[in-house]
Design brief:
Blueprint: H1 18-26, H2 32-97, H3 120-127, H4 139-149, E1 157-162, E2 165-170, H5 188-204, H6 209-223, H7 233-253, H8 265-284
Antiparallel strand pairs: 1-2
Helix pairs in contact: 5-6, 7-8
Length: 285
């Protein structure tokens, strides 16, 4: 349908409409002027009717177009909102992973004694509640860690197994030092210093107070055991510490943990016999 508002009323008085006028006059008692006026009225009524239909159609099409436009705009706004929420979520996640610099106390000074830092390997073992030789916490072990930390790049990765699951970690946390020795191979001075550092780092590694206290008592009983002042006493004490502490970790993994703080005197006597016998045989050679 074309726009009726563009139409112009025909000239019914022109020669082109004479035949229609004569036909209408013949069937009525109207004058020619009355017939012309009736034609104009009839055309005008039809014109107005079609103009109303046209306007209604235009209004309906405009409303339909507005609904489509509104739906598109709402969809675009919804997509924009979702994109902004996703961007904000990613930003928050990135902020969580971003290293944060903590504040400091203006009145606090450094401690009088700075505990040497063990290797990442040793600290990772502690965090996994696994056995780790005390050597890693001794002065030699900490010096070894400092030396090797300058050799390996921080982003060098290695594979380790945690709870039967392979995990990618920094190589420093999965590689044992080739210079490490077992507890009974330390001298007594390094052994005692190493156990102090070891106990200090247990808290930082997330160990429970119950387990930490039990180990502290374990070392205290060994340090003050009567055998320490006897022949080969230090070797006996450190051999006991090495075997019992490793066995304690093994039993904990199996859910059969024992109280390590209680010294098994029978086992201590057996180890003392072994150490003294080996010392005597070494003297006879």
């Amino acid at each position: 349908m074309t726009d009726p508002s563009l139409e112009v009323c025909p000239d019914f008085n022109s020669d082109g409409f004479r035949t229609i006028r004569d036909f209408m006059i013949a069937g009525s008692h109207e004058t020619e002027q009355q017939t012309i006026e009736r034609l104009i009225i009839s055309w005008t009524e039809d014109h107005n009717r079609r103009l109303g239909l046209w306007q209604d159609q235009q209004a309906a099409e405009a409303e339909a177009a507005e609904q489509v436009h509104r739906a598109r705009r709402e969809r675009e706004e919804e997509l924009q909102r979702l994109a902004e929420e996703e961007t904000e979520r990613e930003r928050r996640e990135a902020d969580k992973k971003k290293a944060k610099l903590n504040d400091f106390d203006d009145t606090l000074i450094v401690d009088n004694v700075i505990t040497p830092r063990p290797s990442q390997f040793a600290l990772q073992k502690l965090s996994s509640f696994e056995y780790v030789p005390l050597w890693y916490f001794s002065p030699d072990g900490c010096r070894d860690a400092a030396k090797n930390s300058t050799i390996s790049a921080d982003d060098t990765l290695g594979i380790t197994k945690v709870d039967d699951v392979l995990t990618v970690r920094p190589v420093g946390s999965v590689k044992a030092s080739r210079n490490a020795v077992e507890d009974h191979e330390l001298n007594i001075t390094d052994f005692l210093r190493a156990k102090n550092s070891y106990l200090h780092h247990l808290d930082k590694a997330g160990w429970t107070q119950r387990h930490t206290d039990s180990l502290a008592q374990f070392f205290w009983h060994l340090e003050n055991h009567p055998f320490r002042d006897g022949p080969n006493g230090s070797t006996i004490i450190m051999t006991y510490a090495h075997r019992v502490r490793r066995n304690w970790h093994d039993k904990l993994k199996l859910g059969k943990g024992f109280n390590i703080a209680i010294i098994n005197e029978s086992l201590m006597n057996t180890i003392a016999f072994e150490v003294n016998t080996a010392a005597q045989q070494s003297t006879l050679r």
